Amino acid sequence: xxxxxxxxxxxxxWQAMAVATLLGLGLLGLLLYTTGAPHxxxxxxxxxxxxxxxxxxxxxxxxLFGIPHALSGGAPAQQGRYGANTNLEQxxxxxxxxLLGVGLTQLGSLWSGxxxxxxxxxxxxxxxxxxxxxxxxxxxxxxxxxxxxGWLATRLLLAGALTQADGNALKLFSSAQEQLRExxxxxxxxxxxxxxxxxxxxxxxxxxxxAAAAGAGLDPAEHPAALESQLAEVRAGxxxxxxxxxxxxxxxxSDDAGLRMQALALTQGNAALGxxxxxxxxVERPRSPFEHYHALLAARGMLNRLGRDQRxxxxxxxxxxxxxxxxxxxxxxxxxxxxxILAKLDAIGQVPTPRPSGV
Length: 359
Hints:
Elements: H1 2-34, H2 40-66, H3 87-105, H4 110-121, H5 131-181, H6 185-198, H7 210-215, H8 223-236, H9 245-252, H10 257-269, H11 276-284, H12 289-302, H13 308-323, H14 333-350
Helix pairs in contact: 1-2, 1-5, 2-5, 4-5, 5-6, 6-12, 8-10, 9-10, 10-12, 11-12, 11-13, 12-14, 13-14
């Protein structure tokens, strides 16, 4: 395995060196040519802009040709868990077919078109007798070079990045299943949300606030992963915690964002410690998107312990946040959790109330 990785790294290194060498040769040729122009600096600037424009155009086409395709199929246990968004793949297929079709139908006129382009660009390169063919060669050279660079970069970097993202999401889904088997519904829900955010299913609105990170004793520069990990630890140990509901209620009322986050994590891990009125207040009046997300998770874990009136009040608060113009955004992790709360409330409402014996 290590030898295979080293070989792949060497191949990528040689490919990068080849592209860099070709780029250097093209720029060297441009520099040598423009030294003989009447205005060398102006001609060099124009030539660099032509080279950059054609390289970008070629790289864009190379990107379209190099977009990796998501593999279909897989084990039955993995199917239906999530699906990769193939919109970009479809656009890539359509555009590459259009480009190939137009290129093949116009193949006979490509040379004349390239010649006319060279004549149009010749004045920018000094207007010498050989400026037109040099401009045409410059465009063709950097167009092909940009295509190769864009194609290689897409194949080498994008495929790996997408594979890593899908792999991370799959690990999170597996961890969520383990949490669910252990009876930790809130932890499983949180991991599922993180996995779907990795897959780009919605934008993450739960970026930890700087105040919450500072209150938890974390460096704001690294708080996203560190604070989430700390909250997960508090949530996992909530059932073994010696905290009392009164103490958790006091944490909810604190002005310290870190202490409030601890109260939410304790409530997520052990609904018996939670204070419904505090959680409802957090749902109705969000302090930050991050605290609002975790308040929704806490409310999700408390549903089975709520009475009818409390469930109705929670439903009204969640619906109000979903409908408010400045409330929960569309396609966000908070909306996902809010909709799951409403679905669970509907399911609870459909369970028939047991009748007293003898009635």
